[in-house]
Amino acid sequence: MAVFVRDKHKRPLMPCSEKRARLLLARGRAVVHKRYPFTIRLKDRVGGDTQPLRLGIDPGSKTTGLALMRETDSTESDGPQRHVLCLFDLVHRGYQIKKSLEQRRGFRRRRRSKNLRYRAPRFNNRTKPKGWLAPSLQHRVDTVMAWVERLSKLAPVTAISQELVRFDTQKLDNPEISGVEYQQGTLLGYEVREYLLAKWGRECAYCGTGDTPLEIEHVVPRSRGGSNRVSNLTLSCHPCNQAKGSLPLADFFSRDKGLRKRLKANGLSADARLERVQRQLKQPLRDASAVNATRWALFNALKTTGLPVAVASGGRTKYNRQRLGIPKTHALDAACVGAFGWLHDWTASTLTIKCTGRGNYQRTRLTKYGFPRGYLMRQKQVRGFQTGDIVKAVVPSGKKAGTYTGRVAVRKTGSFNIQTDQGAVQGISHKHCTVIQRGDGYGYHLTPTINQLKGGAGQAVA
């Protein structure tokens, strides 16, 4: 991936290649400004020419993809050309926030029922401001905006593209489209397929087979009065689609021997699978609901940056990805957002950014009933180190001799734990540790390029 560059006064310049960054550092013309994402600062340059950079965003419930691209005009009619510079996967912690709030609510209710048994209810007196989002949802908006602002300080971003993840937006290209042209346009079927793939986990709903071509299947057959509504549609592999035919769902699971054989090969039972299909048909998409609840809040927040924000649908993203033969990842989806001609250098490495938080104010460990079971130390720093810092430890001798790089967890005794890509290493003295980057509430993991995945694993900083 490209290396971010800042001038002598810490203003962003165009990113450069890894080779050029090594030469600048070796010749003493630059110093390391930040490790993750890797940034250098020039010592002998102020200002410089820049090119248009676009930041693509693919919002997700658990992971949001970010892609920084350089755009060039094309003389052809297929649109601008995009050159990928950096790819990022931003992993959210909305589920952990929700669990923590539920635990805190339980503790609070226990205290009230014990100490204030006859306390009058207050829920009628509390109001929420307009546009309020639950903390687990607001976290998604805040972390994406934090990284948009951070990347804007590291590179001269001039435009933003966001996937609004609405399952119907063909009018982006042609506002006057209508009638049969709208129903049979370029994106015919892509919106529905993308919705079904997300709902059914990209596997056959009946036998659970993945990594195989999937077909749209009517749960209640058309011959038995089934409709084309999306609530009556699912995905199945070709053998299941042919075997089911016009059979009702229960009869198909109880009679078809081929289905039972495929279920047995996948380690599944027919009764459990039937119950899952019936439950999933009625269950809304929780992850899609989270994205839909935050997409407009994120869009309004992006407009406050002052940069032009272009929006597109998930169907358009999938159409671009399949048209160019690009595999599906969150970061590459961000690179495929919107209308463009061609995407270059999309095999770049991906930096996974995991939201870890900065700790908590709670200094007491509690049991599941809310009673104290242990106490944490009152200070967060020990010997100049803090939990979350990325450190490099060089142990010269002993059972744990070696070099370790990772996220540190401090102890009051000065004996730290370091989380590396091979696992946690315990009992490393603070005397052997050197800070690489102060903790900023995130963990970093560099995934190799798609071509390198066949040869080895990536480098991780948990």
Account of the protein in words:
There is one protein chain. The protein has helices at residues 18-26, 94-115, 135-154, 179-183, 190-199, 238-244, 249-255, 257-265, 270-282, 286-303, 314-324, 330-335; strands at residues 3-6, 12-16, 30-34, 39-42, 53-58, 63-72, 81-91, 157-163, 214-218, 233-237, 309-312, 342-344, 350-355, 364-366, 372-375, 381-382, 385-386, 390-395, 402-409, 415-420, 423-429, 433-437, 442-447, 459-461. The chain is of the alpha+beta class and 462 residues long. Strands 5, 6, 7, 8, 11, 12, 13, 23 and 24 form a nine-stranded mixed sheet that branches. The longest helix has 22 residues, at 94-115. The chain is globular, with a radius of gyration of 26 Å.
Mean of pLDDT: 84
Oligomer: single chain
Using only C-alpha atoms, the radius of gyration works out to 26 Å
* Contiguous uncertain segments of 5+ residues: 167-173, 452-462
Number of separate strands? 24
- The termini sit apart by 19 Å
From the spread of the alpha carbons, the general shape counts as: globular
The secondary structure category is alpha+beta
Helix content percent band: 25-40%
For the sheet with most strands, the description reads: 9 strands, mixed
Portion in strands? 25-35%
Helix count from the secondary structure assignment: 12
Which secondary structure elements does this structure contain, and how are they paired or packed?
Elements: E1 3-6, E2 12-16, H1 18-26, E3 30-34, E4 39-42, E5 53-58, E6 63-72, E7 81-91, H2 94-115, H3 135-154, E8 157-163, H4 179-183, H5 190-199, E9 214-218, E10 233-237, H6 238-244, H7 249-255, H8 257-265, H9 270-282, H10 286-303, E11 309-312, H11 314-324, H12 330-335, E12 342-344, E13 350-355, E14 364-366, E15 372-375, E16 381-382, E17 385-386, E18 390-395, E19 402-409, E20 415-420, E21 423-429, E22 433-437, E23 442-447, E24 459-461
Helix pairs in contact: 2-3, 3-10, 5-11
